[in-house]
Amino acid sequence: MKIGIYPGTFDPVTHGHTDIITRSLRVFDKVVVAVAPNPSKHPLFNLAERLAMVQLVMKGLEQVDVTPFDGLLVDYVERSDAHAIIRGLRAISDFEHEFQMALINRKLAKTVETVFLMPSEEYSYLSSTIIKEVARHGGNLTEFLHPEVARRLHDRIGSLKP
Ligand code: ADP
What is the pTM of this model? Predict the structure, then answer.
């Protein structure tokens, strides 16, 4: 059974993330979505909240597991008996950082491969950061987020307003 690990912050999970997960399932038998605390990114949602939203969006997909993960990604991948790290590539702007990460990870663990997938064009400009910006200005999120995730995001942003 081929297992892929899809790591990220998912603050919050968007249709761009789910598009990559759906595509991954054409290549892997099982995908583990590994949600990292990433405090340095100052996430809007805490780890438990981000996990809950990914779980909600992935509900019913038996080939997808959602789990928290901390520490070195390659250690986690090796511990999980996974075959590859999955990452999404949006625009060329993602490439430099992702290329660096993939090579560092390969240096740390020779047998861990990184597989890059491109999202559907309609999501190629989508990021959690942009979505939070749209939400802050009261924009419509229905095309980008699961309705319940959109509701939670609006609530969170509303609760932070002075
Ligand atoms: P990180 O903090 O690791 O960048 P993210 O949650 O922002 O975590 O993203 C996790 C992965 O999903 C990354 O590989 C990112 O490039 C990818 N990703 C995020 N949004 C999209 C999208 N709209 N299309 C394709 N890949 C995406």
Answer: 0.95
